[in-house]
Model the fold of this input.
Amino acid sequence: AQSVTQPDIHITVSEGASLELRCNYSYGATPYLFWYVQSPGQGLQLLLKYFSGDTLVQGIKGFEAEFKRSQSSFNLRKPSVHWSDAAEYFCAVTPINNAGNMLTFGGGTRLMVKP
Amino acid sequence: GAVVSQHPSWVICKSGTSVKIECRSLDFQATTMFWYRQFPKQSLMLMATSNEGSKATYEQGVEKDKFLINHASLTLSTLTVTSAHPEDSSFYICSAPDRGVTEAFFGQGTRLTVV
Done:
């Protein structure tokens, strides 16, 4: 069965510092990969997605993610964190022939930003 | 981008009553919608797949008689929590894929509190 692991439950960074959120997946084949952000009490906003091609994907709000097939990873990065980035971040996968449909989510990483 | 609207955003109900949550795709048609549940500080778990014109498909462990799903039109799916109990208190989120667009769009979520 497919699974998504986000090893870090909480991460605290200082404003202006760089950020990397880890995501590893377990699946029979390379799935479609997504990163979502959720502010408290809110729905999910898509940050970026990877289907194929260039393994470095650019998203909104200055985020990027790199797909590494050999490591089954899809880590999210941002060079300089802003206080408004404090939120919950979810990595998710969906089968390659089922894009946009049911998602399997990681446990989430809560990002806190220190002033 | 495509918009999915969920209503209500929050609801408080008494134990034993039923609550209906609506999920609408505003500018596209969705033959399939998905319902997720998120307990505090946890990830999203797929509850069921809502299929227009046919019965919903429930994930293992989800009681279909308790969580009634109706997908009566191509733009509306409803989730009714019947005989709600405090343990049903959770954040419920729906999503819908836009055909031809390889991602799912999420509603804002509904915070259900059963007292």
